[in-house]
Design goal:
Helix content is about 25%, strand content about 35%. By secondary structure, the chain is an alpha+beta fold. The protein has a domain at about 60-185: FAS1 domain (Roll), CATH 2.30.180.10. The strands form two sheets. Strands 6-5-11-10-9-8-7 form a seven-stranded mixed beta sheet. Strands 1-2-3-4 form a four-stranded antiparallel beta sheet. The longest helix is centred in the middle third of the chain and has 10 residues, at about 70-80. It starts with a strand and ends in an 8-residue tail after the last strand.
Length: about 190
């Protein structure tokens, strides 16, 4: 068992073996349960049922926190102090939101590193690389570079679906009162 302490956050990791698959489960204050697939296990990201589909149009933060597919993203946004920005109706964003499975595919130790106080700048850089200004639906995207909130471009490719860098958009156009969410199957890491 491994534990990590971040401000207002306790993360406990246990490793369990099962035939043909192994899982790392994280549980923590305000996180619920997070399940990460280890390398070698492929899973299809589930469709995200959102509050927007059920009852009007909540904010990006409300949609992310209500979906079990975005527990890691929600925890990182909380840790960075960015939840308020994505809960504000006065700002509009487009978020390319990696699922928990996408975070689980990162190299070992990456998520834990992002929670360390000395990694705040790296955390901000990674999170901002998933955000563009304004609400942009998939039909408004075009092939080519799009500048993110960290100042670096992501490459959008249209054809057989929508791709952002090497990530596939598995679910597009989740409408929020303050923007749009596109679910992606990989975490975007900026090259600096």
């Amino acid at each position: 068992m491994w534990q990590s302490y971040a401000p207002n956050l306790l993360v406990t990791m246990t490793i369990a073996s099962k035939p043909f698959s192994r899982f790392i489960t994280l549980a923590g204050f305000g996180l619920g349960s997070l399940l990460f697939a280890l390398p070698g296990r492929a899973e299809v990201a589930p469709k995200v049922e959102t509050l927007a589909q059920a009852s009007g149009s909540p904010t990006i933060a409300a949609i992310a926190s209500s979906s079990s597919s975005f527990d890691v993203l929600t925890a990182l946004l909380n840790h960075a102090g960015w939840t308020g920005a994505f809960d504000s109706p006065s700002k509009s964003f487009t978020v390319f939101a990696p699922t928990d499975d996408a975070f689980g595919r990162l190299p070992k130790g990456t998520i834990e590193q992002l929670f360390k106080p000395e990694s705040k700048e790296m955390l901000y850089d990674v999170l901002a690389y998933h955000v563009i200004g304004g609400s942009v639906t998939s039909d408004a995207l075009a092939n080519g570079p799009v500048t993110t909130k960290n100042g670096l471009p992501i490459e959008v490719s249209l054809g057989q679906g929508v791709r952002v860098n090497s990530a596939n958009v598995s679910q597009a156009d989740i409408s929020a009162s303050n923007g749009t969410i596109h679910v992606i199957d990989q975490v975007l890491i900026p090259n600096r």
